[in-house]
Request: fold
Amino acid sequence: MSSKAGAAAAKENRKRQTIARAGLAAAPGRSVALEYPVKAEPGRLRLLLRQMWEYRISYLFIAPFMLCFIAFIVVPVLAAVGLSFTYFNAIEAPRFIGWQNFQYLISQDLLFLKHALPNTFKFAVIVGPGGYIAAFLLAWLISQLPSRSRKWFALAMYTPSLTIGIAMSIVWLPMLTGDRIGYLNSVLLRLGWIDTPQLWVTDPSYLMNSMIGVTLWSSMGVGFLAMLAGILNVNKDYYEAARIDGMKSRLQEIWYITIPSMKPQMLFGAVMAIVTTFKTGAIGVELSGVNPTPAYSGHLIINHIDDFGFIRFEMGYAAAISVFLLALMYVSNKLSWGLFGSKGDE
Amino acid sequence: MARPWQALTKRRGGSRLTRMDGFQKLLTLLLIVLSVFMLLPIVYIFNHAFKPYHELFVYPPTFLVNEPSLQNVNELLAVTARSTVPMIRYMFNSVFTSVLAVVFVTGVSALCAYPLSKHRFPGSGFVFAAILLTLMFAPEVVQIPRYLVVSGLGIMNTYFAHLLPLMAMPIGVFLLKQFVDQIPDSLLEAARIDGANEFIVFLRIVIPVCMPAVATVAILAFQNSWGNIETSALFMLDDEMKSFAFFLSTLTNNLANNVAMQGAAAVASLIMFVPNLIVFVILQSKVITTMAHSGIK
Reply:
Protein backbone atom coordinates (compact mmCIF):
# COMPACT_ATOMS: atom_id res chain seq x y z
CA MET A 1 0.00 0.00 0.00
CA SER A 2 2.55 2.51 1.10
CA SER A 3 4.77 1.73 -1.85
CA LYS A 4 2.05 2.60 -4.29
CA ALA A 5 1.11 5.63 -2.29
CA GLY A 6 4.78 6.50 -2.19
CA ALA A 7 5.16 6.31 -5.92
CA ALA A 8 2.01 8.32 -6.49
CA ALA A 9 3.03 10.86 -3.91
CA ALA A 10 6.45 11.11 -5.42
CA LYS A 11 4.97 11.86 -8.81
CA GLU A 12 2.65 14.41 -7.29
CA ASN A 13 5.52 16.04 -5.52
CA ARG A 14 7.61 16.27 -8.64
CA LYS A 15 4.73 17.95 -10.44
CA ARG A 16 4.41 20.51 -7.70
CA GLN A 17 8.06 21.28 -7.74
CA THR A 18 8.07 21.88 -11.48
CA ILE A 19 5.01 24.08 -11.14
CA ALA A 20 6.66 26.05 -8.39
CA ARG A 21 9.81 26.42 -10.41
CA ALA A 22 7.86 27.48 -13.47
CA GLY A 23 5.99 29.99 -11.40
CA LEU A 24 9.21 31.47 -10.14
CA ALA A 25 10.62 31.65 -13.61
CA ALA A 26 7.52 33.32 -14.99
CA ALA A 27 7.36 35.93 -12.29
CA PRO A 28 10.91 36.64 -11.22
CA GLY A 29 9.84 39.75 -9.40
CA ARG A 30 7.79 37.82 -6.89
CA SER A 31 9.66 37.22 -3.71
CA VAL A 32 9.98 33.74 -2.35
CA ALA A 33 8.71 34.92 1.00
CA LEU A 34 5.35 35.65 -0.56
CA GLU A 35 4.91 32.03 -1.46
CA TYR A 36 5.06 30.73 2.06
CA PRO A 37 1.78 32.07 3.42
CA VAL A 38 -0.03 30.52 0.47
CA LYS A 39 1.60 27.15 1.06
CA ALA A 40 1.33 27.28 4.82
CA GLU A 41 -1.87 25.25 4.92
CA PRO A 42 -0.59 21.99 3.34
CA GLY A 43 2.86 22.53 4.84
CA ARG A 44 2.99 19.32 6.83
CA LEU A 45 1.73 17.27 3.94
CA ARG A 46 4.28 18.88 1.66
CA LEU A 47 7.02 18.13 4.10
CA LEU A 48 5.90 14.54 4.27
CA LEU A 49 5.75 14.27 0.51
CA ARG A 50 9.19 15.77 0.14
CA GLN A 51 10.48 13.35 2.72
CA MET A 52 8.89 10.49 0.85
CA TRP A 53 10.46 11.69 -2.37
CA GLU A 54 13.85 11.72 -0.72
CA TYR A 55 13.30 8.12 0.28
CA ARG A 56 12.05 7.08 -3.16
CA ILE A 57 14.78 4.44 -3.39
CA SER A 58 13.52 2.86 -0.18
CA TYR A 59 10.03 2.60 -1.59
CA LEU A 60 11.43 1.12 -4.76
CA PHE A 61 13.26 -1.50 -2.70
CA ILE A 62 10.22 -2.57 -0.74
CA ALA A 63 7.82 -2.39 -3.68
CA PRO A 64 8.14 -5.98 -5.01
CA PHE A 65 7.56 -7.51 -1.62
CA MET A 66 4.83 -5.09 -0.68
CA LEU A 67 2.87 -5.76 -3.86
CA CYS A 68 2.75 -9.50 -3.17
CA PHE A 69 2.27 -8.92 0.52
CA ILE A 70 -0.72 -6.66 -0.03
CA ALA A 71 -2.33 -8.84 -2.67
CA PHE A 72 -1.93 -12.21 -0.99
CA ILE A 73 -1.78 -11.39 2.69
CA VAL A 74 -3.06 -7.95 3.64
CA VAL A 75 -6.17 -8.01 1.47
CA PRO A 76 -7.17 -11.57 2.43
CA VAL A 77 -6.55 -10.85 6.11
CA LEU A 78 -8.60 -7.68 5.96
CA ALA A 79 -11.31 -9.58 4.14
CA ALA A 80 -11.24 -12.22 6.87
CA VAL A 81 -11.50 -9.53 9.52
CA GLY A 82 -14.47 -8.18 7.61
CA LEU A 83 -15.99 -11.66 7.48
CA SER A 84 -15.79 -11.89 11.25
CA PHE A 85 -18.68 -9.44 11.42
CA THR A 86 -20.86 -11.53 9.15
CA TYR A 87 -22.65 -14.82 8.96
CA PHE A 88 -20.93 -16.60 6.09
CA ASN A 89 -21.37 -20.25 5.20
CA ALA A 90 -19.11 -20.17 2.12
CA ILE A 91 -22.12 -20.72 -0.17
CA GLU A 92 -24.48 -17.78 0.30
CA ALA A 93 -23.25 -14.21 0.32
CA PRO A 94 -22.02 -13.03 3.73
CA ARG A 95 -24.71 -11.37 5.86
CA PHE A 96 -23.64 -8.57 8.19
CA ILE A 97 -24.44 -9.30 11.84
CA GLY A 98 -22.24 -6.82 13.70
CA TRP A 99 -20.58 -7.99 16.89
CA GLN A 100 -22.74 -11.08 17.31
CA ASN A 101 -19.95 -13.55 16.51
CA PHE A 102 -17.71 -12.03 19.14
CA GLN A 103 -20.51 -11.83 21.69
CA TYR A 104 -21.31 -15.47 21.18
CA LEU A 105 -17.64 -16.40 21.33
CA ILE A 106 -16.93 -14.84 24.71
CA SER A 107 -20.26 -15.52 26.38
CA GLN A 108 -21.96 -18.62 24.96
CA ASP A 109 -19.47 -20.86 23.24
CA LEU A 110 -18.89 -23.37 26.01
CA LEU A 111 -16.49 -25.51 23.98
CA PHE A 112 -14.34 -22.48 23.43
CA LEU A 113 -14.51 -21.14 26.97
CA LYS A 114 -14.21 -24.47 28.78
CA HIS A 115 -11.71 -26.25 26.53
CA ALA A 116 -10.11 -24.34 23.68
CA LEU A 117 -9.14 -21.26 25.65
CA PRO A 118 -7.74 -22.87 28.84
CA ASN A 119 -6.05 -25.63 26.84
CA THR A 120 -4.38 -23.09 24.59
CA PHE A 121 -3.21 -21.12 27.60
CA LYS A 122 -1.72 -24.14 29.30
CA PHE A 123 -0.12 -25.29 26.07
CA ALA A 124 1.28 -21.87 25.22
CA VAL A 125 2.60 -21.08 28.67
CA ILE A 126 4.69 -24.26 28.72
CA VAL A 127 5.59 -24.74 25.06
CA GLY A 128 6.27 -21.08 24.24
CA PRO A 129 8.95 -20.27 26.80
CA GLY A 130 10.08 -23.91 27.05
CA GLY A 131 10.68 -24.25 23.33
CA TYR A 132 12.33 -20.85 23.23
CA ILE A 133 14.78 -21.63 26.01
CA ALA A 134 15.48 -25.09 24.63
CA ALA A 135 16.14 -23.64 21.18
CA PHE A 136 18.57 -21.10 22.57
CA LEU A 137 20.40 -23.61 24.76
CA LEU A 138 20.77 -26.12 21.94
CA ALA A 139 21.92 -23.42 19.56
CA TRP A 140 24.50 -22.32 22.09
CA LEU A 141 25.71 -25.85 22.77
CA ILE A 142 26.11 -26.46 19.05
CA SER A 143 28.05 -23.23 18.69
CA GLN A 144 30.54 -24.53 21.23
CA LEU A 145 31.48 -27.45 19.02
CA PRO A 146 34.17 -27.50 16.34
CA SER A 147 32.74 -25.89 13.23
CA ARG A 148 32.85 -28.97 11.04
CA SER A 149 30.37 -30.94 13.10
CA ARG A 150 27.97 -28.05 13.72
CA LYS A 151 26.10 -28.48 10.47
CA TRP A 152 25.20 -32.07 11.25
CA PHE A 153 23.99 -31.31 14.74
CA ALA A 154 21.97 -28.40 13.41
CA LEU A 155 20.44 -30.79 10.90
CA ALA A 156 19.63 -33.29 13.64
CA MET A 157 17.90 -30.72 15.80
CA TYR A 158 15.99 -29.27 12.86
CA THR A 159 14.87 -32.69 11.58
CA PRO A 160 11.54 -32.77 13.42
CA SER A 161 10.61 -29.43 11.86
CA LEU A 162 11.82 -30.59 8.48
CA THR A 163 9.71 -33.73 8.53
CA ILE A 164 6.79 -32.27 10.37
CA GLY A 165 3.89 -34.55 9.47
CA ILE A 166 5.82 -37.77 9.47
CA ALA A 167 7.64 -36.86 12.63
CA MET A 168 4.52 -36.32 14.65
CA SER A 169 2.40 -39.24 13.81
CA ILE A 170 4.84 -42.01 13.12
CA VAL A 171 7.78 -41.53 15.41
CA TRP A 172 5.70 -40.82 18.44
CA LEU A 173 2.97 -43.36 17.97
CA PRO A 174 5.13 -46.38 18.76
CA MET A 175 6.57 -44.50 21.72
CA LEU A 176 3.27 -43.53 23.21
CA THR A 177 1.10 -46.47 22.24
CA GLY A 178 -1.34 -47.29 24.98
CA ASP A 179 -0.63 -51.00 25.38
CA ARG A 180 2.44 -52.49 26.96
CA ILE A 181 4.20 -52.71 23.60
CA GLY A 182 4.56 -48.93 23.50
CA TYR A 183 8.16 -47.98 24.24
CA LEU A 184 7.32 -45.52 26.98
CA ASN A 185 4.94 -47.90 28.72
CA SER A 186 7.29 -50.81 28.48
CA VAL A 187 10.20 -48.80 29.90
CA LEU A 188 8.13 -47.39 32.72
CA LEU A 189 6.65 -50.80 33.50
CA ARG A 190 10.08 -52.36 33.64
CA LEU A 191 11.30 -49.60 35.93
CA GLY A 192 8.26 -50.21 38.08
CA TRP A 193 7.10 -46.60 37.92
CA ILE A 194 3.66 -47.62 36.73
CA ASP A 195 1.65 -50.81 37.31
CA THR A 196 -0.59 -50.74 34.27
CA PRO A 197 0.03 -49.43 30.79
CA GLN A 198 -1.11 -45.83 30.49
CA LEU A 199 -3.11 -44.51 27.56
CA TRP A 200 -0.75 -41.64 26.80
CA VAL A 201 -2.60 -40.31 23.80
CA THR A 202 -6.20 -41.34 24.30
CA ASP A 203 -6.67 -40.69 28.00
CA PRO A 204 -7.88 -37.10 28.37
CA SER A 205 -5.71 -36.52 31.42
CA TYR A 206 -2.48 -37.43 29.58
CA LEU A 207 -3.12 -36.20 26.07
CA MET A 208 -2.24 -32.58 26.79
CA ASN A 209 1.06 -33.55 28.39
CA SER A 210 1.93 -35.80 25.48
CA MET A 211 1.14 -32.96 23.11
CA ILE A 212 3.39 -30.62 25.05
CA GLY A 213 6.22 -33.14 25.04
CA VAL A 214 6.04 -33.83 21.34
CA THR A 215 5.75 -30.16 20.45
CA LEU A 216 8.77 -29.29 22.55
CA TRP A 217 10.69 -32.02 20.76
CA SER A 218 9.85 -30.42 17.42
CA SER A 219 10.29 -26.82 18.48
CA MET A 220 13.76 -26.32 16.97
CA GLY A 221 12.36 -24.53 13.96
CA VAL A 222 13.29 -21.32 12.24
CA GLY A 223 13.78 -19.56 15.58
CA PHE A 224 16.46 -22.08 16.42
CA LEU A 225 18.20 -21.57 13.07
CA ALA A 226 18.12 -17.80 13.54
CA MET A 227 19.54 -18.03 17.03
CA LEU A 228 22.28 -20.41 15.93
CA ALA A 229 23.28 -18.00 13.18
CA GLY A 230 23.05 -15.14 15.66
CA ILE A 231 25.32 -16.81 18.20
CA LEU A 232 27.90 -17.67 15.56
CA ASN A 233 27.77 -14.08 14.36
CA VAL A 234 28.83 -12.62 17.69
CA ASN A 235 32.16 -10.91 17.37
CA LYS A 236 34.80 -13.24 18.83
CA ASP A 237 36.88 -10.30 20.06
CA TYR A 238 34.30 -9.60 22.74
CA TYR A 239 34.92 -12.97 24.34
CA GLU A 240 38.63 -12.42 24.27
CA ALA A 241 38.30 -8.98 25.76
CA ALA A 242 36.02 -10.31 28.47
CA ARG A 243 38.45 -13.08 29.24
CA ILE A 244 41.26 -10.60 29.64
CA ASP A 245 39.00 -8.58 31.91
CA GLY A 246 38.62 -11.65 34.08
CA MET A 247 35.37 -13.23 33.01
CA LYS A 248 35.49 -16.78 34.26
CA SER A 249 32.50 -18.90 33.42
CA ARG A 250 30.72 -19.58 30.19
CA LEU A 251 27.46 -18.70 31.88
CA GLN A 252 28.76 -15.19 32.36
CA GLU A 253 29.74 -15.14 28.71
CA ILE A 254 26.23 -16.10 27.68
CA TRP A 255 24.59 -13.58 29.92
CA TYR A 256 26.85 -10.58 29.40
CA ILE A 257 28.06 -11.05 25.84
CA THR A 258 26.15 -13.58 23.77
CA ILE A 259 22.60 -12.55 24.58
CA PRO A 260 23.14 -8.78 24.44
CA SER A 261 24.98 -9.05 21.11
CA MET A 262 22.23 -11.06 19.46
CA LYS A 263 19.17 -9.21 20.64
CA PRO A 264 17.57 -9.06 17.17
CA GLN A 265 17.75 -12.84 16.84
CA MET A 266 16.48 -13.37 20.38
CA LEU A 267 13.54 -11.16 19.57
CA PHE A 268 12.89 -13.04 16.35
CA GLY A 269 13.01 -16.32 18.24
CA ALA A 270 10.56 -15.02 20.81
CA VAL A 271 8.05 -13.82 18.24
CA MET A 272 8.32 -17.06 16.30
CA ALA A 273 7.90 -19.08 19.49
CA ILE A 274 4.68 -17.25 20.26
CA VAL A 275 3.36 -17.43 16.73
CA THR A 276 4.08 -21.11 16.20
CA THR A 277 2.79 -22.09 19.64
CA PHE A 278 -0.52 -20.36 19.18
CA LYS A 279 -0.86 -21.66 15.65
CA THR A 280 -0.33 -25.29 16.63
CA GLY A 281 -3.40 -27.40 16.31
CA ALA A 282 -3.05 -30.59 14.36
CA ILE A 283 -0.84 -32.30 16.90
CA GLY A 284 -3.60 -33.36 19.30
CA VAL A 285 -5.66 -34.89 16.52
CA GLU A 286 -2.63 -36.64 15.04
CA LEU A 287 -1.56 -38.14 18.34
CA SER A 288 -4.94 -39.30 19.56
CA GLY A 289 -6.14 -40.29 16.09
CA VAL A 290 -9.61 -38.86 16.63
CA ASN A 291 -11.10 -35.48 15.83
CA PRO A 292 -12.15 -33.85 18.10
CA THR A 293 -9.71 -35.08 20.68
CA PRO A 294 -11.04 -37.26 23.54
CA ALA A 295 -13.21 -35.15 25.85
CA TYR A 296 -11.78 -32.09 24.09
CA SER A 297 -8.66 -32.49 26.22
CA GLY A 298 -6.41 -31.48 23.34
CA HIS A 299 -8.77 -28.95 21.81
CA LEU A 300 -6.82 -25.79 20.96
CA ILE A 301 -8.07 -22.56 19.46
CA ILE A 302 -6.80 -23.58 16.03
CA ASN A 303 -8.84 -26.79 16.25
CA HIS A 304 -11.82 -24.67 17.06
CA ILE A 305 -11.21 -22.55 13.97
CA ASP A 306 -10.82 -25.68 11.82
CA ASP A 307 -13.97 -27.10 13.31
CA PHE A 308 -16.09 -24.09 12.38
CA GLY A 309 -14.28 -23.28 9.15
CA PHE A 310 -14.02 -26.66 7.48
CA ILE A 311 -16.54 -28.90 9.24
CA ARG A 312 -19.47 -26.67 10.10
CA PHE A 313 -18.71 -24.17 7.32
CA GLU A 314 -19.40 -21.16 9.50
CA MET A 315 -16.65 -19.07 7.99
CA GLY A 316 -17.81 -15.86 9.62
CA TYR A 317 -17.54 -17.36 13.06
CA ALA A 318 -14.21 -19.01 12.26
CA ALA A 319 -12.93 -15.61 11.15
CA ALA A 320 -14.09 -14.10 14.43
CA ILE A 321 -12.12 -16.73 16.37
CA SER A 322 -9.08 -15.98 14.21
CA VAL A 323 -9.35 -12.30 15.05
CA PHE A 324 -9.58 -13.20 18.72
CA LEU A 325 -6.50 -15.41 18.39
CA LEU A 326 -4.66 -12.59 16.68
CA ALA A 327 -5.48 -10.30 19.61
CA LEU A 328 -4.26 -12.96 22.01
CA MET A 329 -0.95 -13.31 20.19
CA TYR A 330 -0.56 -9.57 19.97
CA VAL A 331 -0.95 -9.23 23.73
CA SER A 332 1.53 -12.04 24.42
CA ASN A 333 3.94 -10.40 22.06
CA LYS A 334 3.67 -7.08 23.81
CA LEU A 335 4.24 -8.85 27.10
CA SER A 336 7.36 -10.60 25.90
CA TRP A 337 8.74 -7.49 24.24
CA GLY A 338 8.11 -5.70 27.50
CA LEU A 339 10.17 -8.38 29.24
CA PHE A 340 13.00 -7.89 26.80
CA GLY A 341 12.71 -4.16 27.31
CA SER A 342 15.16 -1.71 25.79
CA LYS A 343 13.88 -2.28 22.25
CA GLY A 344 11.96 0.95 22.48
CA ASP A 345 11.95 1.89 18.84
CA GLU A 346 9.41 -0.58 17.53
CA MET B 1 36.25 -22.61 17.00
CA ALA B 2 34.20 -21.43 19.85
CA ARG B 3 36.71 -19.14 21.39
CA PRO B 4 39.54 -17.24 19.83
CA TRP B 5 42.26 -18.39 22.17
CA GLN B 6 41.56 -21.89 21.01
CA ALA B 7 42.29 -20.80 17.49
CA LEU B 8 45.85 -20.21 18.58
CA THR B 9 46.29 -23.73 19.85
CA LYS B 10 44.72 -24.98 16.67
CA ARG B 11 47.69 -23.95 14.59
CA ARG B 12 49.94 -26.23 16.54
CA GLY B 13 48.40 -29.08 14.61
CA GLY B 14 47.37 -32.46 15.92
CA SER B 15 44.20 -34.27 15.03
CA ARG B 16 40.85 -32.61 15.41
CA LEU B 17 39.86 -34.75 18.34
CA THR B 18 42.87 -33.97 20.46
CA ARG B 19 42.16 -30.30 20.03
CA MET B 20 38.76 -30.59 21.66
CA ASP B 21 38.78 -29.78 25.33
CA GLY B 22 36.96 -31.88 27.89
CA PHE B 23 33.88 -29.72 27.77
CA GLN B 24 33.59 -30.17 24.04
CA LYS B 25 33.99 -33.92 24.29
CA LEU B 26 31.28 -34.21 26.90
CA LEU B 27 29.08 -31.91 24.87
CA THR B 28 29.59 -33.89 21.69
CA LEU B 29 28.59 -37.07 23.47
CA LEU B 30 25.50 -35.45 24.93
CA LEU B 31 24.47 -33.95 21.62
CA ILE B 32 25.04 -37.22 19.78
CA VAL B 33 22.65 -38.99 22.12
CA LEU B 34 20.08 -36.25 21.64
CA SER B 35 20.64 -36.19 17.89
CA VAL B 36 19.94 -39.88 17.55
CA PHE B 37 16.60 -39.23 19.15
CA MET B 38 15.90 -36.20 16.96
CA LEU B 39 17.00 -37.97 13.79
CA LEU B 40 14.52 -40.81 14.22
CA PRO B 41 12.15 -39.41 11.57
CA ILE B 42 14.90 -39.50 8.93
CA VAL B 43 15.86 -43.04 9.87
CA TYR B 44 12.23 -43.97 9.64
CA ILE B 45 11.62 -42.35 6.25
CA PHE B 46 14.62 -44.03 4.67
CA ASN B 47 13.82 -47.43 6.08
CA HIS B 48 10.12 -47.27 5.51
CA ALA B 49 10.54 -46.75 1.79
CA PHE B 50 12.30 -50.08 1.41
CA LYS B 51 10.08 -52.22 3.60
CA PRO B 52 8.26 -55.10 1.93
CA TYR B 53 4.52 -55.15 2.49
CA HIS B 54 4.50 -57.51 5.42
CA GLU B 55 6.76 -55.10 7.29
CA LEU B 56 4.92 -51.92 6.33
CA PHE B 57 1.96 -52.77 8.53
CA VAL B 58 3.69 -54.06 11.61
CA TYR B 59 2.19 -52.39 14.63
CA PRO B 60 3.71 -50.55 16.38
CA PRO B 61 5.79 -49.44 13.38
CA THR B 62 9.43 -50.44 13.35
CA PHE B 63 12.19 -47.98 12.57
CA LEU B 64 14.56 -50.33 10.80
CA VAL B 65 13.83 -52.49 7.84
CA ASN B 66 14.56 -56.21 8.13
CA GLU B 67 14.43 -57.40 4.55
CA PRO B 68 14.93 -54.37 2.31
CA SER B 69 13.34 -54.63 -1.11
CA LEU B 70 12.73 -52.43 -4.12
CA GLN B 71 9.17 -53.62 -4.45
CA ASN B 72 7.77 -50.23 -3.35
CA VAL B 73 9.82 -48.38 -5.93
CA ASN B 74 8.44 -50.63 -8.62
CA GLU B 75 4.95 -50.03 -7.35
CA LEU B 76 5.42 -46.26 -7.52
CA LEU B 77 6.80 -46.54 -11.03
CA ALA B 78 3.81 -48.63 -12.05
CA VAL B 79 1.40 -46.06 -10.59
CA THR B 80 3.10 -43.16 -12.30
CA ALA B 81 3.18 -45.02 -15.60
CA ARG B 82 -0.59 -45.27 -15.38
CA SER B 83 -1.18 -41.57 -14.71
CA THR B 84 -2.37 -39.49 -17.64
CA VAL B 85 0.18 -36.74 -17.07
CA PRO B 86 3.76 -38.00 -17.14
CA MET B 87 5.51 -37.77 -13.80
CA ILE B 88 8.33 -35.78 -15.34
CA ARG B 89 5.88 -32.96 -15.93
CA TYR B 90 4.94 -32.78 -12.25
CA MET B 91 8.61 -32.94 -11.44
CA PHE B 92 9.35 -30.08 -13.80
CA ASN B 93 6.58 -27.94 -12.29
CA SER B 94 7.91 -28.49 -8.79
CA VAL B 95 11.57 -27.95 -9.58
CA PHE B 96 10.84 -24.94 -11.74
CA THR B 97 8.63 -23.20 -9.19
CA SER B 98 10.88 -24.12 -6.27
CA VAL B 99 14.00 -22.73 -7.89
CA LEU B 100 12.21 -19.53 -8.85
CA ALA B 101 10.67 -19.32 -5.40
CA VAL B 102 14.04 -19.58 -3.66
CA VAL B 103 15.58 -16.92 -5.88
CA PHE B 104 12.67 -14.51 -5.77
CA VAL B 105 11.64 -14.97 -2.15
CA THR B 106 15.12 -14.35 -0.83
CA GLY B 107 15.72 -11.48 -3.24
CA VAL B 108 12.43 -9.75 -2.63
CA SER B 109 12.56 -10.27 1.14
CA ALA B 110 16.10 -8.94 1.39
CA LEU B 111 15.24 -5.94 -0.78
CA CYS B 112 12.40 -5.16 1.57
CA ALA B 113 14.30 -5.83 4.79
CA TYR B 114 17.19 -3.49 4.06
CA PRO B 115 15.26 -0.19 3.90
CA LEU B 116 12.93 -1.33 6.68
CA SER B 117 15.92 -1.65 8.93
CA LYS B 118 18.25 1.10 7.77
CA HIS B 119 16.14 3.83 6.16
CA ARG B 120 13.74 5.64 8.40
CA PHE B 121 11.33 6.42 5.60
CA PRO B 122 7.79 7.60 6.39
CA GLY B 123 5.64 4.55 6.97
CA SER B 124 8.46 2.12 7.75
CA GLY B 125 7.22 1.52 11.26
CA PHE B 126 3.74 0.92 9.97
CA VAL B 127 4.91 -1.52 7.32
CA PHE B 128 6.93 -3.51 9.82
CA ALA B 129 4.02 -3.61 12.26
CA ALA B 130 1.76 -4.87 9.48
CA ILE B 131 4.24 -7.62 8.63
CA LEU B 132 4.39 -8.73 12.25
CA LEU B 133 0.64 -8.61 12.69
CA THR B 134 -0.15 -10.67 9.62
CA LEU B 135 2.39 -13.22 10.80
CA MET B 136 0.02 -13.83 13.68
CA PHE B 137 -3.13 -14.34 11.68
CA ALA B 138 -4.35 -17.92 11.51
CA PRO B 139 -4.15 -19.01 7.86
CA GLU B 140 -7.38 -21.05 7.91
CA VAL B 141 -9.88 -18.33 7.14
CA VAL B 142 -7.67 -16.49 4.67
CA GLN B 143 -8.00 -19.18 2.02
CA ILE B 144 -11.29 -18.05 0.50
CA PRO B 145 -10.32 -14.38 0.16
CA ARG B 146 -6.95 -15.42 -1.24
CA TYR B 147 -8.66 -17.57 -3.83
CA LEU B 148 -10.76 -14.57 -4.83
CA VAL B 149 -7.64 -12.42 -5.16
CA VAL B 150 -5.87 -14.96 -7.33
CA SER B 151 -8.85 -15.40 -9.62
CA GLY B 152 -9.40 -11.63 -9.66
CA LEU B 153 -5.83 -11.09 -10.84
CA GLY B 154 -6.48 -13.55 -13.66
CA ILE B 155 -3.47 -15.71 -12.85
CA MET B 156 -5.38 -18.92 -12.19
CA ASN B 157 -3.75 -21.94 -13.77
CA THR B 158 -0.45 -20.17 -14.43
CA TYR B 159 2.96 -20.43 -12.82
CA PHE B 160 2.38 -16.99 -11.34
CA ALA B 161 -0.23 -18.49 -9.06
CA HIS B 162 2.34 -21.02 -7.86
CA LEU B 163 4.93 -18.37 -7.25
CA LEU B 164 3.42 -15.03 -6.28
CA PRO B 165 1.50 -16.12 -3.16
CA LEU B 166 4.70 -17.65 -1.79
CA MET B 167 6.69 -14.52 -2.45
CA ALA B 168 4.85 -12.77 0.32
CA MET B 169 6.72 -14.50 3.14
CA PRO B 170 6.56 -12.18 6.17
CA ILE B 171 8.85 -14.46 8.21
CA GLY B 172 11.60 -13.95 5.66
CA VAL B 173 11.43 -10.18 5.83
CA PHE B 174 11.25 -10.25 9.61
CA LEU B 175 14.27 -12.54 9.91
CA LEU B 176 16.36 -10.58 7.42
CA LYS B 177 15.43 -7.29 9.02
CA GLN B 178 16.65 -8.54 12.38
CA PHE B 179 20.01 -9.41 10.84
CA VAL B 180 20.31 -6.16 8.90
CA ASP B 181 19.69 -4.38 12.21
CA GLN B 182 23.04 -5.71 13.37
CA ILE B 183 25.05 -4.14 10.55
CA PRO B 184 26.66 -1.04 11.95
CA ASP B 185 25.55 2.14 10.19
CA SER B 186 29.18 3.21 9.95
CA LEU B 187 29.91 0.34 7.59
CA LEU B 188 27.13 1.41 5.22
CA GLU B 189 28.13 5.04 5.58
CA ALA B 190 31.71 4.25 4.66
CA ALA B 191 30.55 2.55 1.50
CA ARG B 192 28.34 5.50 0.60
CA ILE B 193 31.21 7.92 1.09
CA ASP B 194 33.25 5.76 -1.25
CA GLY B 195 30.59 6.47 -3.84
CA ALA B 196 28.42 3.36 -3.65
CA ASN B 197 24.76 3.92 -4.35
CA GLU B 198 22.06 2.09 -2.41
CA PHE B 199 21.94 -0.85 -4.81
CA ILE B 200 25.67 -1.38 -4.54
CA VAL B 201 25.51 -1.08 -0.76
CA PHE B 202 22.73 -3.63 -0.77
CA LEU B 203 24.49 -6.09 -3.06
CA ARG B 204 28.05 -5.75 -1.84
CA ILE B 205 27.56 -5.22 1.89
CA VAL B 206 24.10 -6.05 3.17
CA ILE B 207 23.74 -9.36 1.34
CA PRO B 208 27.21 -10.77 2.10
CA VAL B 209 27.10 -9.72 5.73
CA CYS B 210 23.63 -11.17 6.18
CA MET B 211 24.43 -14.37 4.29
CA PRO B 212 23.43 -16.58 7.24
CA ALA B 213 19.97 -15.04 7.24
CA VAL B 214 19.72 -15.14 3.46
CA ALA B 215 20.58 -18.84 3.49
CA THR B 216 18.06 -19.50 6.24
CA VAL B 217 15.33 -17.70 4.30
CA ALA B 218 16.28 -19.72 1.23
CA ILE B 219 15.86 -22.94 3.24
CA LEU B 220 12.41 -21.84 4.35
CA ALA B 221 11.42 -20.72 0.86
CA PHE B 222 12.46 -24.02 -0.62
CA GLN B 223 10.60 -25.99 2.03
CA ASN B 224 7.48 -23.89 1.48
CA SER B 225 7.52 -24.23 -2.25
CA TRP B 226 8.64 -27.84 -2.61
CA GLY B 227 6.03 -29.19 -0.23
CA ASN B 228 3.31 -26.84 -1.36
CA ILE B 229 0.02 -28.55 -2.04
CA GLU B 230 -2.28 -25.62 -1.48
CA THR B 231 -1.55 -23.64 -4.64
CA SER B 232 -1.99 -26.76 -6.78
CA ALA B 233 -5.21 -27.73 -5.10
CA LEU B 234 -6.79 -24.27 -5.14
CA PHE B 235 -5.37 -22.33 -8.06
CA MET B 236 -4.53 -24.95 -10.71
CA LEU B 237 -7.27 -26.27 -12.91
CA ASP B 238 -5.30 -28.48 -15.29
CA ASP B 239 -3.48 -31.54 -14.08
CA GLU B 240 -0.39 -30.59 -16.09
CA MET B 241 0.05 -27.51 -13.94
CA LYS B 242 -0.02 -29.25 -10.58
CA SER B 243 3.03 -29.89 -8.49
CA PHE B 244 4.80 -33.10 -7.68
CA ALA B 245 3.89 -32.72 -4.02
CA PHE B 246 0.25 -32.51 -4.96
CA PHE B 247 0.51 -35.56 -7.18
CA LEU B 248 2.10 -37.57 -4.38
CA SER B 249 -0.49 -36.40 -1.91
CA THR B 250 -3.23 -37.73 -4.19
CA LEU B 251 -1.52 -41.10 -3.93
CA THR B 252 -1.56 -41.05 -0.16
CA ASN B 253 -4.75 -39.12 0.47
CA ASN B 254 -7.29 -41.75 -0.38
CA LEU B 255 -5.59 -44.41 1.60
CA ALA B 256 -6.50 -43.62 5.15
CA ASN B 257 -7.34 -47.25 5.85
CA ASN B 258 -6.23 -48.67 2.59
CA VAL B 259 -3.59 -51.31 2.11
CA ALA B 260 -3.07 -50.75 -1.59
CA MET B 261 -0.28 -48.37 -2.60
CA GLN B 262 1.07 -47.81 0.91
CA GLY B 263 4.41 -48.93 -0.46
CA ALA B 264 4.30 -46.38 -3.25
CA ALA B 265 3.33 -43.76 -0.71
CA ALA B 266 6.34 -44.63 1.43
CA VAL B 267 8.71 -44.18 -1.48
CA ALA B 268 6.90 -40.99 -2.44
CA SER B 269 7.49 -39.45 0.96
CA LEU B 270 11.16 -40.36 0.70
CA ILE B 271 11.37 -38.64 -2.69
CA MET B 272 9.64 -35.59 -1.25
CA PHE B 273 11.96 -35.49 1.70
CA VAL B 274 15.39 -35.94 0.13
CA PRO B 275 15.53 -32.56 -1.68
CA ASN B 276 14.61 -30.82 1.57
CA LEU B 277 17.46 -32.60 3.27
CA ILE B 278 19.99 -31.77 0.56
CA VAL B 279 19.01 -28.12 0.35
CA PHE B 280 19.15 -27.80 4.11
CA VAL B 281 22.62 -29.31 4.39
CA ILE B 282 24.05 -27.21 1.56
CA LEU B 283 22.57 -23.94 2.74
CA GLN B 284 23.18 -24.58 6.41
CA SER B 285 26.87 -25.10 5.76
CA LYS B 286 26.76 -21.71 4.08
CA VAL B 287 25.35 -20.28 7.30
CA ILE B 288 28.17 -21.77 9.27
CA THR B 289 31.09 -21.01 6.96
CA THR B 290 30.18 -17.38 6.36
CA MET B 291 30.54 -16.70 10.05
CA ALA B 292 34.28 -17.02 9.86
CA HIS B 293 34.76 -13.94 7.72
CA SER B 294 31.70 -11.92 8.47
CA GLY B 295 32.20 -8.20 8.26
CA ILE B 296 30.45 -7.35 11.50
CA LYS B 297 32.83 -5.74 13.91
